[in-house]
Amino acid sequence: xxxxxxxxxxxxxxxxxxxxxxxxxxxxxxxxxxxxxxxxxxxxxxxxxxxxxxxxxxxxxxxxxxxxxxxxxxxxxxxxxxxxxxxxxxxxxxxxxxxxxxxxxxxxxxxxxxxxxxxxxxxxxxxxxxxxxxxxxxxxxxxxxxxxxxxxxxxxxxxxxxxxxxxxxxxxxxxxxxxxxxxxxxxxxxxxxxxxxxxxxxxxxxxxxxxxxx
Length: 214
What we know:
Shape: elongated
Helix content: 40-55%
Largest sheet: 3 strands, antiparallel
Strand order of the largest sheet: 3-6-7
Mean pLDDT: 78
Radius of gyration: 26 Å
Strand content: 15-25%
């Protein structure tokens, strides 16, 4: 066997060993990460179930509230209101990123109002401010909220920081696509509106024609 061949086999052997070591290290890291996942004590499970229920209710309200306000929790200062209905021009319709931020803002503001921890009379629950991330996907909306809690149960102090998740079966992406298509038109095309797979309502408000996409 030539010297060059020996060197090649030696290098190949080293590469294989390195790959195996990296694979074992990755598996160990993954196991370590899994071991670090929060284990929920039995005392905290009713509290977490209660928060989960509040998150689901708040998320549904957020969808209806922001939907009725053209995707906004906080309306732009230029919004016109007719008969208590906020009318947002198409040019001001929020992007997907802004929609996600507005939904998250509503949940962060309203979730603490939903959670009344005084019902857990044997415990003292101290919450921190929630932090929500919203992802509008093709078939639903994924909501992930971190709501850290410190619970004093007798002489025992417990903490829970594991995130809560819920989904809304709303295809908001269809609405975003429809709005994007409409914005590319010089005039509103009724046939185009009817082909968006959305419920379209047309009404007259004072001197305006209002198109509602549901």
